[in-house]
Design brief:
The protein has 177 residues and is mainly beta. 5% of the residues lie in helices and 45% in strands. The N and C termini lie far apart (47 Å). Strands 3, 4, 5, 6, 7, 8, 9, 10, 11, 12, 13 and 14 form a twelve-stranded parallel sheet that branches.
Length: 177
């Protein structure tokens, strides 16, 4: 059962609240539902977001290091000036707007991306993904450069194939993917 949670320094659950420049280091927001909130410039280093739902609001310029991202959902959120790191296991990003959002040194397992806006601008830097997550990213028209498979080999490197005419025969030269 999700908790209705009130953080005394102005992040209110189920209300229109705004938080600026607050520290929530190592805090537990386990199974918390946060709706209609503007969460700005907060430091969530070491926080526990297991089962947390962020719905209808803004999540901008926050510090997100060593976060536990399991069963975390972002629904109808504006994600701006954010770098996501860590392991995302069974997380959801649905109907979100991404503005200068990056995933760096992240592992994404069974993580779903559905109906997101501005997703082409999201950068994936040295990220590992499974096949299901890859399919969702591709379907959302993500820039797939920087994605790695589980065995640390790049799963998508686009190299154009070259064609040569030799003795009146077309030969296709495959540039080993």
């Amino acid at each position: 059962m999700a908790a209705i949670f009130l953080i005394p320094i102005s992040v209110k659950v189920k209300s229109k609240a705004q938080t600026c420049k607050k520290k929530f280091n190592n805090c537990s927001l386990n199974e918390t539902v946060i709706t209609k909130s503007n969460i700005l410039q907060c430091d969530f280093s070491g926080a526990d977001f297991i089962g947390t739902v962020f719905k209808t609001g803004n999540f901008m310029k926050n510090t997100l290091e060593n976060i536990q991202w399991n069963l975390t959902s972002f629904i109808e959120m504006q994600l701006q000036d954010i770098t996501f790191t860590g392991t995302f296991n069974e997380c959801t990003f649905e109907n979100c707007g991404f503005y200068t959002a990056n995933f760096e040194n992240a592992t994404l397992i069974n993580t779903f991306f559905k109906n997101n806006r501005k997703f082409k601008r999201v950068k994936f830097i040295n990220c590992k993904v499974d096949k299901i997550t890859y399919a969702f990213l591709k379907n959302n028209l993500a820039d797939l450069k920087g994605l790695l498979s589980w065995n640390d080999k790049t799963i998508l490197v686009w190299k154009p194939m070259s064609y040569k005419i030799h003795s009146n025969i077309f030969s296709l030269i495959n540039n080993q993917y």
